[in-house]
Every structure is written in structure tokens, then in C-alpha cells.
Amino acid sequence: MGERLVVRSELVAPGHVPDSCGAVGATRRYLPAVRAEGGSEHWALVAAKQFGDAATVLGATVADYERVAGIHHPDTLGAREELAAAHHAAGQFADAARLYRRTLADREHAQGAHHPDTIATRQKLADTYLAGGHGARYMDSRRFAEAGVRVLYQAYSHPVYAQQHGDFVPFLSSLDLLLMHGDASLAILRRGDAWTEEP
Questions:
Q1: Would the pTM count as exceeding 0.70?
Q2: 45 to 58, 107, 160: CA distances (angstroms)
């Protein structure tokens, strides 16, 4: 008979199989919050800022999946990505990035570079945020810097293109550009695209 995989993130009620890593004991204290939210206890632990306990639960789950299902199984990859997200929520950005990179490599190997899950994982490793031109008015750039994320602000300069009547008038309806230049419209708009680190 094959080995039974016990998902530690579900071991929260009395009577379940004992958890050799102590994750159940660590999370049982938070059962009321888990039941109230109807979600997984590791996210209740994150919400309660019990990051060490959340990492214990998720780390044990990842280890179980890797042992029983293999490192490229979708459930293993999903569990490792949740562990990365918990590290991120704790402000442990280097640990989160390391786990996301490993998960990305394994997803590319197992699922291919263009699989939706692979693309979603790749997006979590983005290191640059593109903000609108007035983003600095409402963004807390310090938090981006602390997370190791570079912020670029849009500095769009409207390109001049041929219009039907008179001198060029910028920022008209997109219909003006489409009706005058058809399929070339997007390339024309992109000529004005520019980004700067200073808002």
C-alpha cells in the first residue's frame, strides 16, 4: 500500500493523525481565528503575525509533498509558493525570493515556460514597479525600497502624428489616431513612452 500524504495545513482538529514536527500544537492555539475565517490556519498565523509558526506549518507541508509526491508535483510547487508568500508577508524578502526562484525553475521544468502557473510565479519575482506619472503623490516609495523593488514613474511625452485638419492637437480621443493611422497606432503611441526614477 502506498504512503499516505498528510497535509499539515489541514491538521488542526483533535483526532487527526499526530504531527511529528509539532505544527499542530503550534497552530491549535489559533483554531478560533481559523474557524472564524474558514481558511487555512497558516494564513491565520500570518494574520496573527506568528510567522515562525506559519513557516513551521508550511515548511513541514512542503517537505511532505516533496517526499511523497516529488519536487515537480503541482501540489508541491503550490505549497512551496505559499511558504514563499508567508516569508514575504513577514518581511523576509530574501527568503521569499529564494523560494520563488526555486519554484519558478521547477515550474518551467515541469509545466513549461508558458503555463499560467509558471507565468504567475514569474510575476511574483518582478523587481520593478511601473507607476503612473503622479504615483509619488500617493505611493509610499520607502516600502518599495525596503522590499527591494525599483519604482519607475511614467514620463509620457505625446508623439506628434499627422492629423486631418490643421496643427497637431495632443491627447485627443484614441479614435483620432486609429482612424488616421490604423494598425500603426500602437507603435505611434509607444514612441512617447518614457520612464524615470524621479517623479
A1: no
A2: 11, 27, 55
